[in-house]
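User: Could you check the structure of this?
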Amino acid sequence: MNREQALRFEAEFMPRIVERVARQIGRGLRIDVLPYEHRNAPTRLHISAPPHDNGERAGQYPYDLSVFLTWDDDEIERLLRPGGEARFQRYLDSLGAKFIAWQGAREVDFNTRSQAEPSILLGGLDFEP
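Assistant: Sure, the predicted structure tokens are below.
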């Protein structure tokens, strides 16, 4: 994927992903888009939660939430082609189920804002519902 495609993805698609993530799991979360730097540092979505004010661990896991999402370059390029918008809308509609599946597979608990590892990467994602 080239820089122009990455910038288009960030401008056209990432704001809608951020909005949907905020609606699905966004209570008290910080959601940041980290822009494309180069092939080995693609556009990332960072979902994090601040430590609890009282210093106590209220979560199921030992670490505060810090999850990075990245998408496969070929998948992004497919979104930029004809028919990509309809495919993307189906993906957005499926995000709630995806977050539930990711929790079990990666030891993340979005409800308690905790996770088993210091940082978790959900990488190479596709846009299939």
